[in-house]
Amino acid sequence: MYDFVALKDLTLGYDKTIAVDRLNLNIHKGELIALLGPSGCGKTTTMRAIAGLLTPRGGSVHIDGRDVTRMPPSRREVGLVFQSYALFPHLSVYENVAFGLRLRHEADLDSKVMAGLETVGLTEFSKRQPADLSGGQQQRVSLARSLVMKPKVLLLDEPLSNLDARLRLEMRTELQRVQRDTGITMVFVTHDQAEALALADRIVLMRDGAIEQIGSAEEIYNSPVSGFAADFMGFETILPDGSGGGLAWRPGAVVLGSGPNQGEVRGASFAGERREYVIDSALGTIKADVPVTDSRYEIGQQVAFDLPRDAAVSLVRFH
Fold it and tell me: What is the pTM of this model?
């Protein structure tokens, strides 16, 4: 693999606000990378700059060895899939997929459209209207419409956010299959940790217009470097270690009912096979979950707890 997309000292903003500040990122050819983070972190802004929809205030964007920083979107060979699907409601599935090809006066249009529909498993739906499709099927039409244009990079902006939980799972599998079958380079923008963990070869976790951490799903999940990264990846109890770093525990690692610490239950909720608790203590806020078969604690009750050191993750930065 080589650096197929390169962002160099990329600075982006709106009016007087800097949204992304001197960001550097290399994406390999054939890689599926997730830009992950909360709203306002700069992930969608970064994607828009790759697409050519936003002109950088500084730095550069390179795709397949070309500097495309000042190049219009139509010349970048980049495909876009939006969360809103953006299908033409008056056109059939076939004509939606064919739209871009017709504008380019492509030869063998029919075979290309049908090949695109076959890639996403929708050949039998070619004559239907978008309104006659489920949300997942509409998203697959949007995906096919981008793929038939043979883009060098496919950008997906929160593509699963409008789907229900079952369809999101189905589309995750579909995106993985399409990426594996086509080998296309994908940049996937999401605020959903589970989506990023399930799909990405690498995750770029963003915070306040900068990259907080880059790594594989396993690295980001198991070895966060900061309190922000740990909290975002589900380490809900984070305490300073006295040296500028910190220690983080997942809720299931906290021991309730015994231990050297005491706290008061501020919140308690049933979560199927487990109960979740929020505990106020001299150490700070502790979040724990335990099997429903364990002892039950009520709001206002004092409870002993332990934070096993061998279950903690050490953080380079507390904040």
Answer: 0.89
